[in-house]
Amino acid sequence: MRGRRCDHSQVETDTDTDSDTETMRCISCKEEYGTIDAGTCKECYEEASETEEELKREIEDLKAKVAFLRFWSQLDHHHSNRSFGPCFTDVVLVASSDTGSTGSPVPVPANKAVLASRSPVFKAMLENEMEESRSGTIKISDVSYDALRAFVNYLYTAEACLDEQLACDLLVLAEKYQVKHLKGYCEKFLVSKLNWDNSVPSYAFAHQHNAKHMLDAALSLIIDNMDKLTKREEYMELVERDPRLVVEIYEAYLSKQVNTAAQRVLP
Amino acid sequence: MRGRRCDHSQVETDTDTDSDTETMRCISCKEEYGTIDAGTCKECYEEASETEEELKREIEDLKAKVAFLRFWSQLDHHHSNRSFGPCFTDVVLVASSDTGSTGSPVPVPANKAVLASRSPVFKAMLENEMEESRSGTIKISDVSYDALRAFVNYLYTAEACLDEQLACDLLVLAEKYQVKHLKGYCEKFLVSKLNWDNSVPSYAFAHQHNAKHMLDAALSLIIDNMDKLTKREEYMELVERDPRLVVEIYEAYLSKQVNTAAQRVLP
Fold it and tell me: What residue stretch is flagged as signal peptide (chains A, B) (predicted)?
């Protein structure tokens, strides 16, 4: 790691050995090195250190800005069983497939201005005096209460504590309500969890929800293991369910082979 | 600047000259240098470059987060003379000293949830069913319409286009409504504009509005120019208006002299 500074007496001429082999002391790690392992001159080192300090200051400034802009969310203390208290909400979201413990769905309170600010879909819905705007209730189908709560919380705070299931659920909501930042966040998380075992379902999921980055990563992983692909159960299921997606895998594989062959021919 | 990379053939032994003086080529600036100007070893250079790339990625992520969290403000298009359109506002702020062109003050629309999220003073005011919450009108005294508009816009977006007058006006509002982030932003701007000519009024202003960072900077500038202080008109005005502040300047000056003397005595 950088940041360790030393005084400027870094040059130590090794007078005991061969006269044309000098060793120097690195300003950063303070280890001795010979010319073959030389990196930068002193001026560039100092410049780079300044740049690093500037970048760190910029990060601090941006973090403070994020903390300021992060919206106070009435959902933050949900698990503490405290009553919400006044929080200026003017709309509720309801997971229409979720029936909660009492038989009727648990509403997630929110603020029209926040929803409209984060999602062009909510904005159009709420500005245009549609049913949702009049009733003050937005029904959201095929989502659990927990995913809906995490979704609204993200709109307030730009934060979510993801696992793979939640990341999938939130990606679907982010795609549906055009919340690009959340979609990118979920995609990044899911790509980091990609492995051979989940590559085929991940590929199909990414395809279905228009997650380009995840699609490319999953496809690349599949193509690198084509010899094992056809034996997999998920592969056979996909052939049954959506053969066009399987065709796209073969097309990508073929395209890669052609490119590789072309590169071999080139000088 | 960093970022210029080269191949790894950076070592060039200067065989024409004295055998114990080698020159190397800096990986960063590609200039030749001798051992006396050596900076870091190659490993540390590569590590530092990686660190720099990581910091830059973090900055990009944070910038995207800021853009996501920045609130859509109904004031953004004010100067384009477009009508505001629906923007889910539920409260107006009125500059009570400003009478606008029609004789009655021009209200600045806002959202209770945004105000409460950014300022603990607004939060308490709006949660506790005070006059402002019931009437939906918050009167703000001793402020111009332009400053109030910039204030509300900052609460939405964390952005303001400052000049010195506006920075002072916003600092006063930020102090009054406890919007720390805005106060720090204004203080930083005003400190960057500090000079000998404005140092005394800046010092008095910082004192009045509890701007510690600005106060220290102005005081330090004044103390460094004590020989010229008493001739200044602003000094004489300050002696008339608030002699305690002048006493504090002399106390700080004395304290600095004592410290300097003590340091001279120490080995």
Answer: none
Which pLDDT does position B136 carry in this prediction? 86
Q: Where are the alpha helices (DSSP H) in chain B?
A: 42-69, 112-118, 120-127, 131-135, 145-157, 164-176, 180-192, 199-208, 212-223, 226-229, 233-241, 243-265
A184 within domain boundaries: no
- Is A51 part of any domain? yes
Residue B66 lies in a domain: yes
What is the model's pLDDT at position A64? 95
Q: Write the CA distances from B203 to A4, B187, B223, B246, integer angstroms.
A: 37, 12, 11, 10
- A22/B35 CB distance under 8 A: yes
pLDDT the model gives residue A10:
43
B:206-265 residues touching chain A, CB 8 A cutoff: none
pLDDT at B101: 53
Mean pLDDT, chain B, rounded, equals: 85
Vertex A166: Cα angle to A162 and A171 (nearest 5): 100
Residue A66 sits in which domain range? Answer: 41-71
Which residue, among B10, B62, B69, would best test binding to A if mutated, counting the most A CBs under 10 Å from its CB? B69
Which of B69, B87, B118 is closest, CB to CB, to A66? Answer: B69
Radius of gyration from C-alpha coordinates of chain A = 28
Q: Which of A29, A40, A113 sits opposite B88 (nearest CB)?
A: A113
* B residues 116-175 closer than 8 Å to A (CB): 116-118, 123, 126-127, 158
Kindly list the residues from chain B whose CB atom is less than 8 angstroms away from the CB atom of residue A71: 69, 71, 113, 117
Q: Is residue B107 part of a domain?
A: no
Contact of A91 with A136, CB cutoff 8 Å: yes
Chain segment A88-146, per-residue pLDDT in tens: 888 999 998 655 555 678 899 999 889 999 999 999 998 887 777 778 899 999 899 99
Contacts of A121 in chain B (CB under 8 A): none
Quote the Cα angle for A76-A80-A85, to 5°. Answer: 65
pLDDT > 60? residue A18: no
- A26 closest CB neighbour out of B13, B44, B58: B44
> B171-197: per-residue pLDDT in tens?
999 999 999 999 999 999 999 999 999
Q: Give ipTM to 2 decimals.
A: 0.81
